């Protein structure tokens, strides 16, 4: 099921270090917001409630934290110990600067969310918004999240919907369209390093039943699953997808799972 350990982690580290400068402005914008918004369509937390209103006293981790605004929102909701792990030193440089600027205390780890240097059962809540959720191999990072959580703890994540991968042209041209370019059942590793438009890194996704099977095998109980809908229509391409497409079909998926 999995590739040789680490290949995608190294490729993605280079990709994100090369591109970290492009994520500074969006990081600054989200740090300045009191109320969380999520994903490429900026849907608010009321509609996609990745974060509960109250995290008072909980130990939390953000897996693939980027500029770490998700952790800032968790700290502002009362989380006690807030840890963000990211594979890119460039992203963490922005994260460190913004945390200092906003006076929020976070622990940042430069590392791989598939092998987090924290003890078993050390967190109550784990979040990933387009971090480990899409850049890590689910067969590695989901069991790792389970290991980190205490009994009763939750993992919530948002990322690309498998349908958006299946309808992505094989040569990586954008936008995604309405043709089924690749099979559904074998969806797993997606290498965009040679994409003709916007070459990227190596991403991962599973078909919906594959995620369900993985959660079951790992021991997670699924509490909720949503397919956020882009509220607008239009032809402006955002991360390879147009609003019109994402208003008709699901471009994103969100999962809430609990360690019993
Ligand atoms: C789109 S950002 C998501 C974070 C945040 N929500 C944001 O939008 O800034 C993706 C992040 O995942 C990180 N990432 C990729 N592979 C990773 C890995 N194996 N372990 C930890 N972080 C990883 C990248 O370095 C990048 O900062």
What features would you describe in this structure?
The chain has 260 residues and is of the alpha/beta class. The protein has a single domain, classed as Rossmann fold (3-Layer(aba) Sandwich). It contains 9 helices and 11 strands. Helix 2 packs parallel to helix 3, helix 2 packs parallel to helix 4 and helix 6 packs parallel to helix 8. The chain is globular and about 50 Å long. The site of S-adenosylmethionine has 24 residues, from helix 1, strand 4 and helix 5.
Give me a quick take on this structure.
This protein has 260 residues and is α/β, with parallel strands linked by helices.
Number of strands: 11
Low-pLDDT residue intervals, each spanning 5 or more residues = none
The CATH architecture category equals 3-Layer(aba) Sandwich
Q: Provide the β-strand percentage band.
A: 15-25%
CATH level-3 fold name: Rossmann fold
Give the CATH level 1 class. Alpha Beta
Q: What proportion of the residues is helical, as a percent range?
A: 25-40%
Characterize the main sheet: 7 strands, mixed
Which small molecules are bound? S-adenosylmethionine
Order of SSEs: HHEEEHEHEEHHEHEEHEHE
The average pLDDT score comes to 97
Helix and strand composition category: alpha/beta
Q: Shape, please? A: globular
Number of domains: 1
- Termini separation: 26 Å
Number of discrete helical segments: 9
Q: Describe the strand arrangement of the main beta sheet, using strand numbers.
A: 5-4-3-6-7-11-10
The gyration radius over C-alpha positions equals: 17 Å
GO molecular function: S-adenosylmethionine-dependent methyltransferase activity
InterPro entries: Methyltransf_11, SAM-dependent_MTases_sf
Protein name: SAM-dependent methyltransferase
GO biological process, one term: methylation
């Amino acid at each position: 099921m999995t590739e040789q350990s680490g290949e995608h982690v190294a490729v993605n580290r280079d990709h994100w270090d090369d591109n970290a400068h492009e994520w500074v402005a969006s990081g600054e914008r989200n740090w300045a917001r009191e109320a969380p918004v999520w994903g490429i369509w900026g849907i608010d937390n009321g509609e996609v409630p990745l974060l509960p209103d109250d995290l008072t006293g909980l130990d939390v981790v953000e897996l693939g934290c980027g500029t770490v605004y998700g952790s800032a929102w968790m700290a502002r909701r009362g989380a006690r110990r807030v840890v963000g792990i990211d594979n890119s030193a460039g992203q963490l440089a922005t994260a460190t600067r913004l945390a200092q600027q906003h006076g929020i205390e976070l622990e940042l780890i430069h590392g791989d969310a598939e092998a987090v240097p924290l003890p078993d059962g050390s967190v109550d809540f784990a979040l990933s918004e387009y971090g480990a959720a899409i850049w890590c191999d689910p067969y590695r990072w989901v069991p790792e999240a389970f290991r980190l959580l205490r009994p009763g703890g939750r993992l919530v994540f948002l990322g690309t919907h498998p349908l958006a991968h299946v309808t992505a042209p094989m040569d990586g041209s954008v936008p995604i369209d309405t043709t089924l370019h690749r099979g559904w059942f074998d969806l797993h590793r997606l290498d965009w390093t040679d994409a003709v438009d916007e070459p990227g890194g190596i991403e991962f996704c599973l078909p919906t039943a594959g995620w369900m099977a993985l959660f079951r095998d790992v021991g997670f109980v699924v509490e909720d699953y949503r397919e956020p809908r882009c509220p607008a229509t239009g032809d402006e391409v955002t991360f390879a997808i147009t609003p019109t497409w994402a208003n008709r079909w699901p471009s994103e998926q969100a999962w809430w799972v609990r360690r019993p």
